[in-house]
Design goal:
Elements: H1 2-15, H2 33-42, H3 50-59, E1 64-67, E2 73-83, H4 92-115, E3 118-129, H5 155-170, H6 173-194, E4 196-214, E5 218-227, E6 232-241, H7 243-254, H8 279-286, E7 290-295, E8 301-310, H9 317-336, E9 338-355, E10 360-375, E11 383-392, E12 398-406, H10 408-422
Antiparallel strand pairs: 1-2, 2-6, 3-4, 4-9, 5-6, 7-8, 8-12, 9-10, 11-12
């Protein structure tokens, strides 16, 4: 009978599912599902440069290497930074320009770091344990006791005792209390360390540096994201580099203008400039900064540089306009060639302490820094103001804007003008109007798209 019962139990066990013996509990759900849901609901996944990232998605591009339809590679990078001034500041327009400049430097820094970056790393993991059991005998804690009586002391010992006695009389009570307090603190620290059972510490230190010269990198999109609650605005750019753009930048520098002609025809020159007499045109002007390249109807490459400056005071228009022009011209120099230096440091330290009573404590310490440096210089020939405009920025404060244009034909014209003015021949007076005032486009053409983002442009 016992044998039959034993066989029955064995058969039952054999046909039971294996997971019936498992002691592991089924998880309540995906570990990250709640966090993912909260991220989407609160919009925490939307960054300050979201408008630029959305633009990349629309174009089907990614940051880093991309390919044109003919297989030619090009490089895309985004950069972003904060607009330091609050929206209520009179200098908000200038600060917007600064935000775009900083974002452009960061975009170029990505290319510089991709071309080569020196990285050093140090990781330290420490695990310590201190365990004590039982009670330490009292006699082990006692200091060494002198066995000599006063009568047995020699002259040297008695002199030492006298000096100590007189010093005790001379030292004020405050000093004695401070010394006793320090000693007590040291004893408390020693007792606290005695209570530590386990200690873990993780330290991660990274240092990185990059240095490269970038030629021909330009913006194809600039954007801003405003948070009206905290009066904070973020700026971003989408920048592009290709071998073709590099050659165009070199042609601007060397004067080899044949590389800037014979491209696919584009729009007439007048239609490349937003109309500051329409709301659509003003909207585009207020949000466009930096260097863009495009083509005219004859296939000639043009360089446009957009800049703006806050107008401070009633008589600040002239200064703002001149500052904007200077920044626009400087941007063309940066397009030709700019040296980018980056330096990054990161130190992350974490620790956990477990005490003898079972209590645990966690601590962390983070230190990091990033430094971007961009230098450029050179002589700019052939640039002229194509358009100047005035408008109210998003904070209803006035700004002066300038669009500087450079083109091969314009550069050749000014080269001839320079030679003519340097000649000793008297050409007589000229009745030509040398004003650079812009008469405006023939229609209300405007665009919120980036300039020069067509494949034929790069």
């Amino acid at each position: 009978m016992n044998i039959l019962r034993l066989f029955s139990i064995m058969a039952l066990i054999a046909f039971m599912p294996l997971d019936a013996f498992s002691q592991e509990e089924e998880p309540d759900g995906d570990l990250f599902s709640t966090a993912a849901q909260a991220t989407v609901e609160t919009g925490a996944n939307l960054s300050d440069d979201q408008v630029c990232l959305d633009y990349l998605s629309e174009k089907g591009w990614v940051q880093g290497e991309n390919r044109k339809s003919d297989g030619t590679p090009f490089y895309i990078a985004t950069g972003s930074d904060l607009v330091f001034a609050p929206m209520s500041s009179d200098d908000f327009g200038t600060s917007m320009m600064d935000g775009i400049i900083s974002s452009s430097v960061k975009a170029k820094a990505k290319l510089a770091e991709s071309m080569g970056r020196d990285i050093s790393s140090q990781i330290v993991v420490e695990i310590k344990q201190d365990f004590q059991s039982g009670k330490k005998p009292e006699f082990l804690n006692q200091p060494e006791i002198s066995q000599k009586s006063y009568e047995d002391m020699g002259a040297v010992d008695k002199m030492r005792l006298l000096v100590n006695q007189q010093l005790d009389k001379l030292i004020d009570p405050e000093t004695k209390a401070a010394v006793n307090s320090d000693a007590a603190s040291a004893r408390q620290l020693e007792r606290a360390l005695d209570d530590v059972l386990n200690q873990r510490e993780f330290t991660d230190t990274i240092t990185a540096n990059a240095n490269a010269t970038i030629r021909g990198m330009k913006n194809i999109r600039t954007g801003f994201k405003a948070n009206t609650k905290n009066q904070q605005v973020g700026a971003c750019v989408v920048s592009i580099w290709s071998e073709k753009l590099l050659k165009q930048a070199d042609a601007v520098t060397t004067g080899n203008f044949d590389l800037l002609r014979g491209e696919k025809p584009g729009k007439p020159v007048s239609r490349h400039l937003p109309n500051d007499k329409t709301e659509a045109g003003i909207k585009e002007l207020l949000g466009k900064f930096g260097v863009f390249t495009t083509r005219d109807e004859k296939g000639n490459v043009f360089v446009y540089s957009y800049a703006q400056e806050s107008v401070l005071g009633r008589d600040g228009d002239d200064i703002a306009r001149r500052n904007a022009q200077l920044r626009a011209e400087r941007a063309i120099i940066q397009f030709r060639e700019e040296t980018i230096e980056t330096g990054s440091f990161s130190k992350n330290q974490q620790g956990r302490v477990e005490y003898n009573d079972g209590m645990r404590e966690y601590y962390s310490d983070r230190n990091s820094s990033d430094r971007f440096k961009a230098t450029a210089g050179g002589t700019l020939k052939g640039a002229a103001v194509a358009k100047s405009w005035r408008a109210l920025q998003i904070n209803k404060k006035p700004v002066q804007g300038v669009i500087v244009r450079w083109s091969p034909s314009q550069a050749e014209f000014f080269e001839q003008a320079s030679e003519a003015n340097a000649s000793s021949v008297d050409y007589g007076s000229s009745s030509d109007d040398d004003s650079t005032d812009y008469e405006g486009p023939t229609d209300d053409w405007s665009s919120t798209e980036g300039m020069g983002d067509d494949e034929d442009d790069f």
